[in-house]
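dude i think i finally got it to work??
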Amino acid sequence: MTPLKAKSAHSQFQIPNHLLQPMWLRGRESMLDGGLVFDPIAANACRRCHLAPDCLTGDIDQQQLLHASLTHLCDEAVHSFLKQYPDAWVLNVGAALDTRFYRLDNGRCHWVELDISENLLWRQKLFHPSERYQLRCGDVTQSAWLDELGIPEDAAVLIVCDHALLKCTQVQIGQFMLGLARRFIHAQTCFVVAGDRAQTWLGKKLGATNYQHGFADPAQQFSQWLPWAQWIKVQSPIEGECMRWKAWQRWLAKMAFKHTLTPLVLQMRW
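look at this
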């Protein structure tokens, strides 16, 4: 697939589509009246970007609705956490071109964006810095960064993985969870993980694409990895009140298998 291209006043960037397209979907959602996400930072950055035509194949409107619904659920989870713990540390693992810090910053939290160095360079080019905002090398598949953060032992910690885990196998996710449990006595998570029917015909009709794993019962699987967890909550993007989901799609939200058809937002506290 041809990469997306982003232009600045002085140069032309070759940005891979898997990095730029999620930001473009959020910017596109921001232009809708009553959109699920308002992301002016993304919309402004996308004005300098050119998407290759072959990157716009498929049902873009449905993909946008799914992406915006998941983003909205994650935003609500992070906002609620920061309301309860305003001085907390938020670790955004696999940050890519996420702009959640700019949307939800309360002026007091400590925010760390973690990703491979190549992706962090794009962040530096597209977004402005902040004194409470750090860029660090690190991802889901290696854990050395966990011991290099310098987070106080009594700090409230939220680990966010918005779509980063969708690129990981179940084995990699399990290893990541064990690494988090060893590093933090107490923490909370907000993850996007995939149901095991997300890549079926029905899942595609809901906007799902290709993922590296699929959970038949994500809450049960995560409770096996961390049996001492205080609580686990799973939310499907089709469970919300957004009327842009078609009637038959909202009907699926009443089915027992609703948590298998799409990526889901999984929150967990231990």
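Confidence is low (pLDDT under 50) at residues 1-12.
im so relieved honestly
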